[in-house]
């Protein structure tokens, strides 16, 4: 498991120039992604959810049938 370390995200790097708000927003988002990743690692027994989306006639059923190896008669 990858530990979530906020110390690394809070480091100030000399010479790094960017908008402080943008940097903090990105750091917050990265923290959230790390927390989500760690949660998913702990709960890896959850079933996989797959969603096939698309308009009429785009091949959703064909793709599903190919994935489950269902043959046409």
From TrEMBL:
It comes from the Bacteria. InterPro entries: P-loop_NTPase. Keywords: Membrane, Transmembrane, Transmembrane helix. Gene3D superfamilies: P-loop containing nucleotide triphosphate hydrolases. The chain crosses the membrane at residues 46-68. The keyword Membrane applies. This is Uncharacterized protein.
């Amino acid at each position: 498991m990858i530990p979530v370390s906020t110390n690394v995200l809070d480091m100030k790097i000399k010479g790094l120039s960017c908008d402080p708000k943008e940097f903090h927003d990105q750091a917050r988002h990265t923290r959230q992604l790390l927390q989500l990743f760690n949660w998913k690692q702990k709960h890896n027994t959850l079933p996989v959810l797959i969603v096939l989306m698309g308009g009429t006639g785009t091949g959703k059923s064909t793709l599903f049938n190919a994935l489950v190896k269902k043959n046409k008669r």
